[in-house]
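Our preliminary data section would be incomplete without showing what the modeling component actually yields. Below, a chain of 354 amino acids is followed by its predicted structure, encoded as tokens that our downstream tools consume directly.
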Amino acid sequence: MDLPVMPPVLPMLAKSASVIPPGMQYEAKWDGFRAIVFRDGPEIEVGSRSGKPLTRYFPELVDALLRQLPGRCVLDGEIVVARGGRLDFDALLERIHPADSRVRHLAEVTPAGLIAFDLLALGDRSLMDTPQRERREALTDALRGAHDPVFTAPVTHDLEVARGWFEQFEGAGLDGVIAKPPGLPYRPGERVMVKVKHERTADCVVAGLRLHKSGPVVGSLLLGLYDDAGRLQHVGVCASFPMRRRQELMAELEPLRMADVGGHPWQEWASADAQAADRLPGGPSRWTGKKDLSWLPLRPERVLEVAYDHMQGDRFRHTAQFRRWRPDREPRQCTYAQLEEPVSYDLARVLGTG
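Predicted structure:
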């Protein structure tokens, strides 16, 4: 390749805020794989957020990009998989597979799309120092003839429209709104945009913990909810504590420590059959590799209120945040029934194709 912007490029990032700021360019926050796409004639390279290549996992998307993108360009976007009118992150995760035969099969069964939202280079010109508003105009012109599975992300400068998107688009699997200063140049790896995500709370059973890499203090708390059959399902973790708080939590939870997993609701966590039947901690995957997935069982007697942004199927999509202990709650009261379901919204309407 010989482009004015060459791989790898780290994507421009966003910092969190609790409200949508005024005076910005607004876009939906897509729930997929961030991707920087480099095209130079017949060559395409798709780089991940970390700079590692994603190209081989999405052959059907590469074919579409070769047909629809300008001959020489670099753009920023999100790779997504849609099912039933909404984004499906679990199906997207399955696309990252080491076997080429499996990759080809999934390309047919769960084809991916690209939502483009920024243009970093076009032809022989780098747009990295060009203001956001001008890059957006150039992107719109460059992709004017694009069609499924290549889309240009909807954009607005109207704060009230952005607030409406924040409320409605979650039902299509999106997870918030991104706000970009109109005069902002592209700044790789820097948190110069603003993201506003949904936050809800849930009461969860604390049923285990993992140790921190630094030593015998809490690394993360393992959270559970009871399903309709009365089984405790592992729904995610709560982490990101200051070191002093990790030490305090270790002391607080010591009375609940079990000598082993015998009698624990997740005692079969090491069994592949059990992992297939229920949500249990420590399930091996190609994402965890050789990572230590061991955990310390706790008697499931304490209830913790956590904050979360949204669910992915029957688990928290991201790490939950500690809010407070709930001694007034009984563990058996911690069920899926308490979770708020977003109102359904068709993804085609978000993309303006339906």
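The first helix runs from residue 59 to 68. The radius of gyration is 22 Å. Preliminary results of this kind motivate Aim 1 of the renewal.
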